[in-house]
Design goal:
The chain has seven helices and no strands. It has 175 residues and is an all-alpha fold. Helix 2 packs across helix 4 and helix 4 packs across helix 5.
């Protein structure tokens, strides 16, 4: 179970880095994050990779991982967007202007990207992540779980009360 927590956190951090790199490469006018945490984590990526890792082993070792990973990550992305919108009253991303958009929550270009990224991550990054997660002591997991929980509760409460992503960014609640 602790390995799954670390996979979630590691891939959430990787997603944060990917978001920042994508914003810089595309020279995005607005370079804010697309998640609600203060910590440099984007939970949608962590949850997406957990869904990909839950796929059958035979799929993860073949080219089937690309379409299956795309489907799993896209399903998670849709669900996370729905949860943010329904329970916190916020939208962190809107793909309505992109081809193949479904309610602005997911779109075809990113679905294709998630499939390729999922495969590359499972085949090349995950063995290293698994070794690292296995080496972390229990007290480290407990300490980070406490920090993460406080961050998640405070950030969710702030958004639930204000429904204001911009205020979250302006007040420094987002890194």
């Amino acid at each position: 179970m602790t390995d799954l927590l670390w996979f979630f956190w590691m891939y959430s951090f990787g997603g944060y880095l990917l978001e920042r790199a994508f914003a810089a490469l595309t020279r995005a006018e607005r370079r804010e994050r697309k998640c609600f945490l203060l910590l440099p984590l984007c939970p949608v990526y962590g949850l997406g990779m957990l869904a990909v890792l839950a796929l059958p082993e035979s799929w993860r070792q073949s080219l089937w991982l690309i379409p299956a990973g795309a489907a799993a990550a896209t399903a998670v992305e849709y669900a996370v967007h729905w949860v943010y919108e329904t329970f916190l009253g916020v939208e962190f991303w809107d793909y309505s202007h992109l081809p193949g958009s479904v309610g602005g929550r997911v779109c075809l270009p990113f679905t294709l990207a998630w499939g390729v990224l999922a495969a590359l991550t499972v085949w090349y990054v995950h063995p290293l992540a698994a070794a690292l997660a296995a080496a972390i002591p229990a007290w480290g997991t407990f300490a980070f779980l406490l920090l993460f929980s406080v961050d998640a509760v405070c950030s969710a409460r702030f958004l639930w009360v204000t429904h204001d992503v911009e205020e979250l960014r302006v007040t420094g609640w987002s890194i």
